[in-house]
Design a protein that fits this description.
The complex is a heterodimer of chains A (210) and B (265). Chain A has 210 residues and is mainly beta. Chain A is 10% helix and 56% strand. Chain B is mainly β and 265 residues long. Chain B contains four helices and 15 strands. Classes of the chains: A mainly beta (210), B mainly beta (265).
């Protein structure tokens, strides 16, 4: 059972079950806990090879036991996501913990990843259960539905879930080259049905200055 | 309401997002209905609807720039958002707040201003690194930690100052007793005996409001553009008309001077 203690610490109550968490993110626990490094995030040999090839590296550990375990990472804000069979797409660096029952994997993101400076691949989390994602400042959760498509700055994008199509928009024009661009030259447009998590801060991207 | 129960405390859509108000302490939502807003480059994080972001340097917006943007020299840092929909603004996870000006004026550190309505006019302040907004309208500013409002007379730490409204410009204030004299000179020269770091303040007098942030971490300064190099313009590097001063040789009376100056060389 995931719960937030404050906004920057995740508390997980466990009764013999297990969670996967980012390596080294445990800050405290009570009760009996066993920590086990998971090679390749528990995705098996194929997953390990994929992660190595795609550069979407993620070191996870498995925490199992009875009691409460607290996780935190660099005072990042933590957001809880619950999954009911749908898929969560998140950068591996923003993923803090998931239920052990959730499957993690990698997926190709195309131009979005390139514009974020995060590489071309992203991590997926799938199944039934809870996950905790991190953001710089509390994330705002925005719903996308068929009549309300959403456009997001790549630097502020954290994660999305549901059945969403993303397309990459480029506003690079002659004026950008003249140094009079709109400052928002690269955007990701989400259409379909689902949720998008954005953080109130922008990572440095190649789009930051054009 | 949501079919993703537990997905964060609130899920927003264009209907539930506030109009021209804070979503949380770090995110501000602007509603555009065919209207325009000025915003600093790269502060938009997401939007619903149809919007266009244009640099203010371009021809079509020339009239707008002429009426509400009086600092042509730093126009390239600003964009005009126009269209209809709702737009989220944020800046490096700093606190953001909106302020309403009614036929007033407010001077703000250039890096803290995020966005403003075109009914306000933005001008360079004669205090370097600050901008002045004049008129009626709403603007959004960021600060490191929540903003506190104070009334003059007050002395404030330079790093905590965000801006001031409706009151005369600040002046420098030094703790004279601590910095002067033989001991003060020794402290300044050697660092021995300790400097509290608070020997220098900005002093505000008159009627108005002073805005302070609750940390002393400065936001990155945004260039405000250079001022014309005329005589008498502060910060212009123009020729002094008064008695000339030696740059970089600021001396307080009674401080330990260098030998040349002591012997009048």
């Amino acid at each position: 059972m995931f719960r937030l203690q404050g906004s920057k610490v995740l508390a997980v109550d466990m009764t013999g079950d297990a969670v996967k968490a980012k390596n080294g993110s445990m800050v405290a626990y009570d009760g009996q806990m066993a920590f086990k490094k998971m090679s390749g995030g528990g995705e098996g040999l194929r997953g390990m090879v994929t992660r190595r090839l795609t550069g979407e590296q993620m070191t996870m550990m498995e925490v199992k036991g009875h009691g409460t375990c607290w996780f935190a990472d660099r005072a990042s804000e933590i957001n809880l996501v619950s999954l009911q069979g749908d898929k969560l797409y998140v950068e591996s660096s923003n993923l803090l913990a998931t239920d052990a029952g959730l499957r993690t994997g990698t997926s190709f993101t195309g131009m979005r990843g390139a514009s974020q400076g995060n590489g071309l691949f992203t991590t997926t989390v799938e199944g039934h259960g809870q996950a905790a994602i991190m953001s710089d400042g509390p994330a705002v959760v925005l719903r996308v539905s068929s009549q309300y498509p959403l456009t997001v700055d790549p630097g502020a994008y954290v994660a999305h879930q549901g059945n969403l199509r993303q397309s990459f928009q480029s506003g690079v024009t002659f004026r950008t080259l003249m140094g009079e661009g709109g400052g928002e030259a690269f955007q990701i447009r989400f259409e379909g049905d689902g949720l998008v998590y954005v953080q109130p801060s922008e990572r440095n991207t190649i789009a930051g200055d054009v | 309401m949501s079919h993703y129960p537990g997905a964060g405390p609130t899920v927003y859509d264009p209907m539930t997002l506030p109009s021209d108000d804070n979503v949380n302490a770090y995110t501000f939502c602007v509603e555009l209905k065919g209207s325009q807003w000025f915003l600093q480059k790269g502060k938009m994080i997401a939007y619903y609807g149809q919007m266009e972001f244009n640099g203010v340097g371009q021809g079509r917006l020339d009239r707008l720039v002429r009426t509400s943007f009086h600092s042509p020299l730093h126009a390239s840092d600003w964009v005009v958002a126009e269209g209809s929909g709702k737009m989220l603004l944020a800046d490096r996870a700093f606190d953001v707040n909106s302020y309403d000006l009614e036929d007033g004026n407010l001077t703000i550190r250039s890096g803290n201003l995020l966005a403003f309505q075109p009914s306000l006019a933005l001008k360079q302040s004669i205090v370097p690194g600050f901008l002045t907004l004049i008129g009626t309208g709403k603007f959004v500013a960021a600060s490191n930690g929540p903003v506190v409002f104070m009334e003059p007379p007050i002395r404030v730490d330079p790093q905590a100052l965000v801006g001031w409204a409706d009151c005369p410009s600040p002046c420098h204030h030094y703790d004279h007793g601590y910095m002067t004299g033989v001991m003060g000179g020794l402290r300044a020269l050697t660092g021995l005996g300790g400097a509290s770091g608070e020997e220098h303040q900005f002093e505000f007098v008159g009627a108005g409001t002073v805005l302070l942030q609750s940390t002393e971490t400065l936001m990155a300064e945004q260039a405000t553009g250079a001022v014309p190099p005329d005589a008498g313009v502060p910060g212009s590097g123009g020729t002094h008309t008064g008695p000339s001063q030696v740059a970089g040789a600021q001396r307080l009376p009674g401080q330990l001077g260098d030998l040349q100056r002591r012997f009048g060389l």
